[in-house]
Design brief:
about 80% helix, elongated, membrane, transmembrane helix, transmembrane
Length: about 80
Amino acid sequence: MQNILSVVTLACGLVALVTAFIPSAHAIAAWFGVVGFVGGLFSQYVSATTAERSLNIVGIVASFVGVALGIYHGGFYP
């Protein structure tokens, strides 16, 4: 379960980060960023190995940047 949470956190972070650079996709970036950030924090809380924690941190940072740029470009709603 912890491995799945880490991979989902990383995937949400990458989606948020990539879509954050497309101004018309700001809602996708914002929502995926929030889900990745909150899920990443929970995943970091229950993680057991260093590899999981490393993926979590990368995913959390990418999610944060994605949600910040998504909010900057227009917020949560289209």
